[in-house]
Amino acid sequence: MAAEPTVSSSHVEHLLAEIESSDGLLGPTLRAVYDGEQHTEFMDKLEERIRVHDKDIERMCNYHYQGFIESVNELLKVRGEARKLKIKVKEVNESMQESGRELTSKCENLIYCRTTQRNIVSAIETLSLVYQS
């Protein structure tokens, strides 16, 4: 019976680090694990590394989730304020439209009165000329 070669934990850690940092092929690294009969220790270390990363991800998600919730609440407040502002703008617009209609009516009335005034002045001048002759 052949003695199983002792595998250094640092070698397995090195292989895991190589897998994490590599953007290339994983084949040579995985081949080194299985050729050296390190797959059991490698799988244990890999599971441990996965748990650590899962905890990191969960921590980051919890942190960002709280920020997300705060942002959503802030957006809901902004939406409510925007609705109030929209209603206020509509009210002001309606008021301005009514004021504009009143002003237009008064301007038309003023134009009519000025036209009448000019006609009266013209009639007086004409009558004055007729009576002077």
Question: Tags for this entry?
Answer:
single chain; 133 residues; 3 helices; rod-shaped; disordered N terminus
Number of helices: 3
Radius of gyration: 45 Å
The percent range for strand residues is under 5%
Overall structural class, as computed from helix and strand content, comes to mainly alpha
Q: Overall pLDDT, averaged?
A: 85
Overall geometric form: rod-shaped
Characterize the largest beta sheet: strand count, sense, and whether it forms a barrel: none
Low-confidence stretches: 1-7
Number of extended strands: 0
Portion in helices = over 70%
SSE pattern: HHH
Instruction: Report the span from N to C terminus.
Output: 151 Å
Pfam families: EXOC6_Sec15_N
Protein name: Exocyst complex component 6B
GO cellular component, one term: exocyst
GO biological process, one term: vesicle tethering involved in exocytosis
Outline the structure in words:
Helix 1 (9-21) packs antiparallel against helix 2. With 133 residues, the protein is mainly alpha-helical. The protein is 87% helix and 0% strand. The model is unreliable at 1-7 (pLDDT under 50). It has helices at 9-21, 27-35, 39-132. This is Exocyst complex component 6B. Residues 45-131 form the Exocyst complex component EXOC6/Sec15 N-terminal domain.
